[in-house]
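pinning this so it doesn't scroll away 📌
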Amino acid sequence: MSPGSSSREREAFRTLLEAVRRRVDDRLPTWLAPKVEAANAVSAEVGAVAEAVTALALRGGKRMRPALLAAAYDAFGGGDVAAVELPMVAIELLQVYLLVHDDWMDDDDVRRGGPTVHVALRARFGSKSLGDAAAILAGDLASGFAQDALFATPLPADRVLRAARAYATLQEEVVCGQLAEMQAATLVRSPAPTVETIHALKTASYTVTGPLAMGALLAGADDTAAARLGRFGRPLGVAFQLRDDLLGTFGDPSATGKPVGNDIRQGKRTALVAEMRGDSKAEALLAKVLGRTDATDADVAEVVCAMETTGARARVEARVNELVEEARRGLQALALPDGPARDALYGAAWALAARST
């Protein structure tokens, strides 16, 4: 692959991403406004939950998932991506649903530069238990909003139905991935799923493979063609999450929005942690520090240093590169026609795996 072609591909994805971001940012508030109005008509409390969902949805986000949906739609002959604005809104609202529940499970206070939904609702209702219960329902409400947007798509009903089935599959997979991650975190003594298995279910499904399949099916691709996209999407989605693991420890907090050492203090079994297993000194250090919310900065720094000296960081970086190449080979096998959409998909492989935020 020549440097010129990779540059062209990256630019194609950047151009698509910016166009999709504008579309989604314009459409989300108009789609959600009547939802909030209807919720407030029920009661101020119901309205507060809908408003919290809307606040998180409108607080930004990379919009990479809808960009992948749009790229697949175009690559499989769908034409003008204006036709899939509502599915793009749906995939963003699905992410909101997952973030609300994930933040509550992790007891995180901040998301996208503002309070997490459970924190906002605790303050709104003046009660931790009521706020937490409302946050669970807020996630469910976002999921309902997402499904409504998908089914309102102005495309042939059979295409929408097949895309909805893909949506249901990715939702099942991400929940299974979350459960598998919980099993690994609690060190259940049955055979634990690997880090990459968890990443494939929890992250790749709704970040890459699901949006790609939905875009292709909405364009009229058959199930076989959509499934073949998995040879591109699955390794790319795993690479995306491995990069997230790296950024959580070695990224710039001002860019990532994540405090250094947060993953270590929360006890997350990231790929970096998995790569330290088998080294007796590293394992002793992890046993002392990993999962300790009161770990000192010096403790965390010692773990981070060990991730370097044991070669864990280098091995995860190498694995990211391997997965990106696997994804690109999977995309080549699809033999898509030349054009901006194909270039954008290739560019996505670079953008998702080499990102700094």
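📌 and the second one:
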Amino acid sequence: MTTIHVSFTLPSGQRFAGAVPAHDVVHLALDRLLPDEIRAGHHLRLFKGDDLIFPDMFLQEIVDHYGDADFALEAIPLDLSTERPFTNFGVDHLAVALEDRDAARRFFSEGLGMHIARDDEHITVVTTGNTALFLFDFDPDAPLAPPAPSRIHHLGLVVDDLEAAAAHLHRQFPDFLGHGTLLERAERLSLYGHVQFGSISFMIQLSQIKAPYRGLTTEPARQAADELYDYASRDYGIRLG
């Protein structure tokens, strides 16, 4: 297996480094190399010079472009004492882990007419504009992997104030953020945690969309507001008696 030397250096000079498979994305390198006290409960920002590096970028592509995989790392503690209110705007995406991602891609794109927004060895994203499905290959050895294929990989929700949501969950459901990490992408900040309901456990991703990327801009997405059912508008279904 081809590996790449990866390092993360904090402003203090503290450095975390090691060999990581070349085909991995940055998120996997963070999971392999950072200790829990740096990864959990922090907003992580990665840089190459002035360029912000996103967690789902491929290490090999970064090396090809920049020449190495040595990153400057900011680990900003989350303020879990805030009591600001926040609003949950509902499901942004549903992620599933599959034994046959190719078949799922064909079904959702060719069968149901969903647009393929991304398709590579890490992930396939199919979308209608207002919601998306994230399709992963099932790999029981990968970080954040579910225990079995074709179960929920994670549920993605959008909130208006991610830090306020994190603080509320820290108070009310402290186990959720036991290993929570806030990661930054081009369009969003995302916080990951795990929930356990009886014997079932899965991950929830809470996202706060950055201001320049907010709003539905494509025609199908704009039309969706006039076509979709508003589950919050009334009680759902008919109850007799």
